[in-house]
Amino acid sequence: MASTDPGTGRLAVPVENTACALRRLAPGAALREPRTPELRVLARALLGCSPMELARRHPGPVARVVLGDQLRALDQAMTGLFRPDTPGPEAARLVRAARYSGAWRAGRRAGALLDRLRTEPGLRAAALGWANGTGHRILADELRGAPVVPDGEDGVRAAELTVAALLPPADFGDPGREVLVSRVDAGECEPSGPLPGDRGPEGLSSRAAFLDVRSVRVGDHGFRVDIDSDPPVDLVDDRGGPTLRALWWTGLGRVADDLGHEYLLLAKDPARTGLVRHWCHPRPASGARMLRLESAGYRGERLRLDPAAAGTSAEVLVKFELTVRLGG
């Protein structure tokens, strides 16, 4: 299940799409109130600027929001729970330093942790090595005592955390009543890029994938859209042995109606069964008769059927829109 997570700020769709939807949001949306002053400042700012512009226009709030996020990641890493791609030596040194430090026993408040880091040289050195190794630049600058200047990527990360703080949770309960009347135009879309290692037009990149809107159900707080995709799978002789190539649809990237409103994609479930389920918010606006559903993209996978060979994958961009008529 792909969903928004207030702890990590990871969204079901790109933050640029969600920020755009917030500016043209349909009536009846129930957004949450961000808990910190910095998040509230950035929430207002996103109504008038793109995520990439946040760092230039509001460097202070962006830096503090990103620093808080990186301190939470550091706190988790100090317990020994870190991502597989975390550099090994730096992570091991951090865990050892934390076990002999009051910081690890002081709780999870970011301010308390930062105070400990400033007063314990050994722990600060271990945390700095970890921050450099994981690319947490804002935290590294803070630990060095250098001026903290956020860049565009920091602005995008701050936007993700801000949007995650605004979005209500998806309602996975009763899906509500069916309102789909008909599909106005069926979906054939052409991937805009080749699969990893494609050498010619015989690959899946030259095939169209069919999308079919199966259901639009309206509940108390939003609606659910189910779309059936028939992901193409080919078994070909790739000059080095049999190779399996497939495209998996990653779901919708934007939902709008014929009145000019947009809707928030709170979660989606690309279960790789052909059916992709989306949870949207709020309910369709009064008077809306059509929904425009914009595709996000495909994930291309390539696997050579050789025990010694590794598979590859890549995102394949798609621009395509489905239109459905509502009733009920």
General description of the model:
This protein is of the alpha+beta class and 328 residues long. The protein is 32% helix and 28% strand. It has ten helices and 15 strands. Helix 7 crosses helix 8 and helix 8 runs antiparallel to helix 9. The two termini are 29 Å apart.
What is the share of helical residues?
25-40%
Counting H and I runs of at least 4 residues, what is the number of helices? 10
Q: Outline, from the CA principal axes?
A: globular
Annotation, overall tally of beta strands: 15
Low-confidence stretches: 1-9, 186-209
Largest sheet: 11 strands, antiparallel
Sheet-strand content, in percent, reads 25-35%
The assigned structural class equals alpha+beta
Q: Termini separation (Å)?
A: 29 Å
- Give me the strand/helix succession: EHHHHHHHHHHEEEEEEEEEEEEEE
Mean pLDDT: 80
Alpha carbon gyration radius: 23 Å
Summary of the model, kept short:
Mean pLDDT is 80; it is low at 1-9 and 186-209. Helix content is 32%, strand content 28%.
Keywords:
328 residues, disordered N terminus, 11-stranded antiparallel β-sheet, 4-stranded antiparallel β-sheet, 28% strand, alpha+beta, 15 strands, 32% helix
List the helices and strands and how they pair.
Blueprint: E1 2-3, H1 15-23, H2 37-45, H3 54-57, H4 59-78, H5 88-99, H6 102-105, H7 110-119, H8 121-134, H9 137-144, H10 152-166, E2 177-178, E3 180-185, E4 187-189, E5 209-218, E6 223-229, E7 233-237, E8 242-249, E9 252-257, E10 262-270, E11 275-281, E12 290-295, E13 297-304, E14 312-317, E15 321-326
Antiparallel strand pairs: 1-10, 2-5, 3-15, 4-5, 5-6, 6-11, 7-8, 8-13, 9-10, 9-12, 10-11, 12-15, 13-14
